[in-house]
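#struct-help
A.M.: can someone run this one for me? Single chain, 226 residues.
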Amino acid sequence: MPVVGTDAHLPGLPAEALTAGALRERFASASQGGRWQPELTGDGVLAGARTASPAAVLLPLLERDGGLQVLLTQRAAHLRDHGGQISFPGGRTEAGDDGPAGTALRESEEEIGLPRERVELLGQMPPYTTVTGFVVTPVVGLVRGPLASTELALDSVEVAEAFEVPLAFLMNPAQHRWHAYAHEGGQRRFLSMPWHGSTADGSPREYFIWGATAAMLRNLYRFLAG
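D.P.: on it. Structure tokens below:
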């Protein structure tokens, strides 16, 4: 898909806005009635005859010496929905879940072995509807204490890999690339935020962050910039 532009004209967020304390304050002020609307609310029309199902994901933030990092996963290639794509840990809501946060915490435990007691919940973002039929609520959480990659236990059925990306990179609109493609006589656009990192064995690799995951990160940028 061709790149039709970036958003380098938008202001980046200063380092002081991307600390754990600053995020706590921003979510606290929003919970007291601060006005804010998400920029992106969904992919488009649902595929086939699907009806939307509630789901939630966790946006886990890790405190490192160089600043906050976002923990992301690559989904297993064989999965029916979004196989092989970069995503946050999460999934479909189950009957026993205590709201979106309960779903996000349960799925994170199941998918990557992140204990729920290690997560300080900061707040929720507005739901995002995917073309595959899920209304996804992003839940932002700060992981308490240092977390080594060896502490994670990935469910190999669902998750191929877990990796980190600096929050400062993802919150820099110069890294937000717009793609366009023809669809049913019209044009659709989507965002990507490619990250050049390395695999667990140190091999260089590009992680292509796009679609719903990139859209949720873009909404987080708008929220923090607001």
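A.M.: thanks! The chain has a mean pLDDT of 90.
D.P.: also worth noting: The chain has one domain: 23-205+214-225.
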